[in-house]
Each structure stands twice: as C-alpha cells, then as structure tokens.
6-phosphogluconolactonase
Amino acid sequence: MSEASVAVHADPDLLAQAVAARLVVRLLDAQAERGQASVVLTGGRIAAAVYRAVAALPARDAVDWSRVDVWWGDERFLPSGDPERNETQARAALLDAVPLDPARVHPMPASDGPAGHDPEEAAARYAAELARSARPGTAALPHFDVLMLGVGEDGHVASVFPEHPVSYESRPVSAVRGSPKPPPVRVTLTLPAINTAEEVWLVAGGADKARAVGMALAGAGPVQLPAAGVQGTGRTLWLLDRAAAADVPARFRSLR
Ligand SMILES: O=C(O)[C@H](O)[C@@H](O)[C@H](O)[C@H](O)COP(=O)(O)O
C-alpha cells in the first residue's frame, strides 16, 4: 500500500489539463512495460473535463488505443445511452474520438440491458466480466494501471457513499440503492476492488471539496469518508486545484 501524495494546480482547467497529460503518459508507460494498458474511469464534472482534455492532446495519438482496456469504477443504473450515464459522458468526451478495440471497452450494464432492471444482477455480471479478464488462477480482478476517482463533497468516491452499506461491502462490485447523489440506483466497484489498482488518482476541484479532501488526508475513517479508505498498491495521488487543496494538512504541503 502506498503513502498518499498531493499535486496542486492553479485552477480547475489547469487541473484537467495536467491530469490529462499524466493519463497519456501513464498509458504510454504501461504499454512500454506490459504491451498493454488498463484504465478505470469515473463520472462527474472533473472527470468529463479530463476526458475532453485528453481528446484535445496531440500526444494522445502516441497511445496504442487498440491495446487499452477501459473499465468503469461506477455507473448510474440507467438505460443505455442515457446522457446521465458515466459511460455516455466518457464516450462523448473521449472514447468515440480514439481508436479503441470495442471488445476492450467494458461499460457497466445498463438498466435496459441483459441484467434487466436488477442492479444486483448487473453488479454480479460486471464482477464476472472482471474475473474473465483476470490472470487465470490469480485473482478476481484484472490488473488496473490507473484508476481515477472524483471526490464528492461528502467524501464519496465512485458510488461508495459515507455510512452507506456499500462502504462495508467486501465483494468487488456492488449494487447501490438509495444513493444520496442522484440517480438513486447505481453499480460500483467497492473499496477493496479500488485498492487493487496500481495507481489511484483522486481528482477534485473547487472549494466545496476542500473539507472532504482535508479530512481524508488527515486520516478520517473509510466508512465515514470513503475517500479516506482509498490506496493504490503503488501510488495514491491526490490531484487538486488550489480551492480544493485549502484544507490539506501541513505535512502534505511540504511535499508540493
Ligand atoms: O457517478 C458519479 O457521479 C461519480 O462517479 C462520482 O463519484 C463523482 O466522481 C463525484 O461525485 C465527483 O463528481 P464531480 O466531479 O462532478 O463533483
């Protein structure tokens, strides 16, 4: 497990640009090392800005997109193509613009898909799809080179919400009902699954995130503040704009 580190950028736009540049480099490095790369996407405003910034980067063409696996950390359980789905947002902002292998793009099931209107069944199907991509006999999950997370004002990550039963869940994928952030029904990777990623990046911009970010870095409990329970196996990186970094504890400030 890795110690957290913090990088701060002047404003949300520069934050998105910097995360986009890091993401391209991370995918290139993974492909240089392993011949392929895998990324876990998230939803929300800052994630969409990052995806648009990657699409606009000339260096994105240096990535062999046909050898990138794309997974999602969480999804809003809505019909396929719904504009509120994290998948729809990511496709519009980035995925439709790069030559991915459709077989390597792994959206979470939609509410009008083969799982029917049953988020538990959708979670089970996604867990099975992850397990099929895992190295035989080793694990229930494939290797994730980088897993990106937005951070909610309440400290949620993916769709793991504070004090919600999902924050105690040990299976890798869980249905979520009664989400405090709309829509109420979701599917999410759980903290134990998120924490198998080699690098986890928590991306947050804006003053309304400062409290949650500060408390997570100060060592809050993972049930009270799921962002505090996130740790990549190789690296845990908080990527913030100045406003979101306002309450970062002093011991991380010296690292900037
Ligand atoms: O489905 C979602 O809404 C997300 O995956 C969620 O975890 C999001 O990343 C955070 O709520 C931050 O979202 P913002 O960047 O929009 O604040």
